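Re: your question from the hallway

Yes, I did run it. Sequences:
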Amino acid sequence: MIDFSMYEVKAPKIQACKCEGCGEIFYPAPMICSKCGARRDPVTGKGWSTFDLEGPCTLLAWTRVWNLPEGYTKKFLQFGIVQFENGLRASGRVEVGEPKTGMKLTATVEESDERPGKPVNVFVFR
Ligand SMILES: [Zn+2]
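Structure:
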């Protein structure tokens, strides 16, 4: 029998970063901890840990972009900035009918192939 478990499709994730020295969390990952000054080696990541950034968040600001470039099938796209419960902020696509500043949303990560080139992981808030 062939074991297919290794081919299991994993949900894409976007990771935030924690300084093990002082416990401060960051997104995106910094070169230097702004709290304790610890350096982060982007290759080894020694002294830093990562965790998935997702889940409940609050919409801080949003915008609707019309007149999309050729190739888009949608009339518009919505983008927003959210704050997670741990205080970190991130931007991504807002997929609710009528966004309102301050509304509670849930962040997930999707692979976006809407633009030319390699697919990238993006936040989707809904
Ligand atoms: Zn630190």
